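Lab notebook page, bench 4
Experiment: in silico fold of construct C2
Operator: M.H.
Input chain length: 398 residues
Purpose: comparison with the prior construct
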Amino acid sequence: MPPPAPAHSPETPAAGPPPPKGRFRRIDAAVHLGFAVLLVVSALRYLMRHSPADNIPILGLAAAAFVLYSVIAVLSRRRRRWAFWMFILVAVWAILVIAAPSFAWCSFALFFLCRTAFTGAVAYIAAGAIAAATAAGLFRLGNGTDLAMLLGPLAVAAMLTLIYDRIENDAAAQRRLHAEVALAQSRLAASERRAGAIAERERVSREIHDTVTQGLASSLLLLEAANRAWPRPSARQDVRQASTLLRQNLSETRSLVHELASPGLDASPLPEALLQAATAYVAAARLLVTGDPRPVPPVVRHTLLRVVQSAAANINLHAGAAHTTLTLGFLPDTVTLDIHDDGAGFDPVAVSPPSDAGGYGLRAMRQRVEQLGGVFSVESTPGEGTIVAAQLPAGGEE
């Protein structure tokens, strides 16, 4: 029996359904085989109970029903229009089963075939016609006295209709559920892609801020100072320092493009790398180490370097500090970093939000640290300096 065919309207059948696949094809084959077996058995039963003169019209109707059923099975498999032939089969079958109730057992296969061929009210009318014809034939077989023969086929048809409708409704609900799940999965995938793109943009913005932006800002300050002091010897020193920063900035930019870490800072131990990153902006910066130095995971090392670079650049640009001290601490499961300066200080609560003029440094540092499960804090008071502190889990090895 072919699977249900799509219809252009609730009651008008269109082309036959697509050819069944897999287990549905096996079910169809079983239904077709069952119809053929029941038809042959019913024909033999009829032949055994009636004279040859009475057999010719009935056998002709049975042969016509068999041919029509075969045509419908072939057309449905080839996705041709077959609903018209189903109307003819129902009409022929109604005449046959009323004239020869021995063929009533084949009504089951025709019932499911009708529910497949038609939809809406037409399907109920066709199935009802088969049930009514079967009931009339069996009632006639009982000489019009056995109500069970009349009501039995109608009751069975009603039960089969309810069961078939329930199966169809459950299948439709399952298809809707699968469609909703597929839609939800596609939306989730799109949301994850958007979230990944946003996270990548934020990461790149932090990298650019901590390398390119800070380096260019410091170089600009040095060049402006050299311009004001020119031609005094201090101006040449500022130009040389600006040139060094620009070269480092260019190297950092190339590393960022190729997704590499800071050149010159990866091979050296972490304390030396942090001090080198700080002195690029604050020449007088010094480093203190507590605990037993050990390798840390690369992502933690990279975060500490970026925090030092951003904080040192801020000290160079805004603090005017005389002393800057980095304290690197190695604890059993964490690594800590404190950056203290005795500069101008500021009010952390009054920091303006990020804009085209800047303001990304503290936010970028906090995001870097907290994304690794660490703790970031800033303590500062106007006129009393600033302490930038970070604590990161570092249980793994580099």
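Observations: Confidence is low (pLDDT under 50) at residues 1-24, 258-265. The longest helix spans residues 147-229.
Next step: discuss at group meeting.
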